[in-house]
């Protein structure tokens, strides 16, 4: 446990110092970097709820692509979900979603006094779908999520929690001036953060 805390602290120090930020010409690496350094994201679904049906609905979810540290990320955003959650109910009707993660949740943007809307405070938009993980991937998802969100282990068992992943089909990176950059999932998974 102490080793895990040390790795997490070291990663945050590097991030705060700005030394580990990939350069703007490496958009795929930036996407991996931002996802790996974020603990939560805004997940947008199409609402299936009465009065909101068909409208966009964004909600905050804890995420993880692997244990903290410079070499722990798979690039796959994992989530711990329950059917009792309103966005999960939306996903049961239409599994398509988008997930936005931003360095605004890290010390990096505050240190540089970047507003969350400033392109230099990088954010990534993933589009795709949410799928339950199969039994062979559940252990990986559990390790990824519980290493960053240890409180999850004590959440009420009667809520029927399950592991899911964001199946990425499209990626947009905003990390510099000049507009969005498009990264393919193949490019994204071929690099390390």
From TrEMBL:
Q: InterPro entries in the record, alphabetically? A: CREG, CREG_beta-barrel, Split_barrel_FMN-bd
Cellular location of this protein? Answer: Secreted
Q: Quick one: signal sequence residues? A: 1-20
Highest taxon above the source species: Eukaryota
A GO CC annotation given for this chain: endomembrane system
Q: Which keywords does the record carry?
A: Glycoprotein, Secreted, Signal
Domain CREG-like beta-barrel span(s) in chain numbering: 22-190
Q: What is this protein called?
A: CREG1 protein
Annotated organism of origin: Syrrhaptes paradoxus
* Record gene name: Creg1
């Amino acid at each position: 446990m102490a080793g895990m805390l040390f790795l997490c602290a070291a990663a945050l120090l590097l991030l705060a110092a700005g030394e580990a930020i990939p350069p703007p010409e490496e958009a795929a690496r930036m996407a991996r970097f931002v996802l790996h350094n974020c603990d939560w994201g805004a997940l947008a679904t199409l609402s299936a709820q009465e009065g909101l049906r068909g409208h966009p609905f964004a909600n905050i979810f804890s995420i993880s692509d692997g244990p903290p540290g410079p070499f722990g990320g798979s690039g796959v955003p994992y989530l711990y979900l329950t059917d009792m959650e309103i966005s999960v109910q939306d996903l049961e009707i239409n599994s398509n979603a988008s997930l936005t993660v931003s360095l605004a949740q890290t010390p990096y943007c505050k240190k540089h006094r970047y507003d969350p809307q400033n392109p230099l405070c990088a954010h990534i938009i993933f589009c795709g779908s949410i799928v339950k993980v199969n039994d062979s991937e559940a252990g990986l998802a559990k390790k990824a999520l519980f290493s960053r969100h240890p409180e999850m282990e004590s959440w009420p068992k009667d809520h029927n929690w399950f592991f899911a992943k964001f199946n990425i089909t499209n990626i947009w990176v905003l990390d510099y001036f000049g507009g969005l950059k498009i990264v393919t999932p193949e490019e994204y998974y071929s690099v390390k953060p």
